[in-house]
């Protein structure tokens, strides 16, 4: 399993909004500048976060985005699954996958299932608030 740029950037956006949550609605351009992410790329990430109620957005003067919940209420797993679709290490474990005809005698299935569980448990055990504590602020 490889986390895409989209997933990594979504985490950076959420951390940035958490760091600046006292400032109200944050313009997308400010987030883009601070995180060194193109505005065009952010325009692909933020609507997904907004549509799924992770952030609230308003348009026009004074507009921007802000977290819709407290930083400790967001898990890394929730954000990554939203942007990545699924964290399954193999196709047969992906959400909605057709059952594999080798499933009954597959020698590696239990290993992949355990890895999948470990991955989800790991990312679901880390919150945005945790990341705020461990990361130093950028200069």
Account of the 3D structure:
The two termini are about 30 Å apart. The protein has a single domain, classed as Winged helix-like DNA-binding domain superfamily/Winged helix DNA-binding domain (Arc Repressor Mutant, subunit A, Orthogonal Bundle), CATH 1.10.10. The protein has about 140 residues and is mainly alpha-helical. The chain has helices at about 5-20, 30-35, 40-50, 75-85, 110-125, 130-135, and strands at about 55-60, 65. The protein has a two-stranded antiparallel sheet. Helix content is about 50%, strand content about 5%. Helix 1 (about 5-20) crosses helix 2.
Q: How does the SSE layout of this entry go?
A:
Blueprint lengths: L4 H15 L8 H8 L3 H13 L3 E4 L5 E4 L8 H9 L24 H16 L3 H7 L5
Antiparallel strand pairs: 1-2
Helix pairs in contact: 1-2, 1-3, 1-4, 1-6, 4-5
Strand-and-helix sequence, N→C? HHHEEHHH
Cα radius of gyration in angstroms: 17 Å
**Number of individual domains:** 1
Secondary-structure arrangement, i.e. CATH architecture: Orthogonal Bundle
Q: How many strands in all?
A: 2
Largest sheet: 2 strands, antiparallel
Distance between the ends: 32 Å
Tell me what portion of residues adopts beta-strand conformation.
5-15%
Mean pLDDT: 91
Shape: elongated
CATH fold descriptor:
Arc Repressor Mutant, subunit A
Low-confidence stretches: none
- Contiguous helical run count: 6
SSE-based structural type: mainly alpha
Q: Output the CATH homologous superfamily.
A: Winged helix-like DNA-binding domain superfamily/Winged helix DNA-binding domain
In spatial order, strands of the major sheet run 1-2
The percent of residues in helical segments reads 40-55%
CATH class: Mainly Alpha
